[in-house]
């Protein structure tokens, strides 16, 4: 994703916007005074090369907690530097699922993460 400029009328409020696929995918991050990240609510992002993404995040100090669901997906949870829970997932073939299919709980708020650039 690439950071895109916010309109001048909104830029003064802080935050940043990101876009990919010619603007078809967008993430907008804003600032809220007194914000406390939720423990369960989170965005989920479908990706390819999930293992490479997990390795990149771990190299930069972000926690990676793996979970395999019954939905034909591999997934993991992580946190951004201020504690927001993020889920990344990749579709898998049923034959690729190995081991028990048990969900993993949320990452606790005390986890420490480094900034990922």
TrEMBL record:
PROSITE patterns in UniProt: VOC
Ranges where the VOC domain occurs: 1-91
Cross-referenced PANTHER family: FAMILY PROTEIN, PUTATIVE (AFU_ORTHOLOGUE AFUA_3G15060)-RELATED
Protein name as annotated: Glyoxalase
Organism domain of life: Bacteria
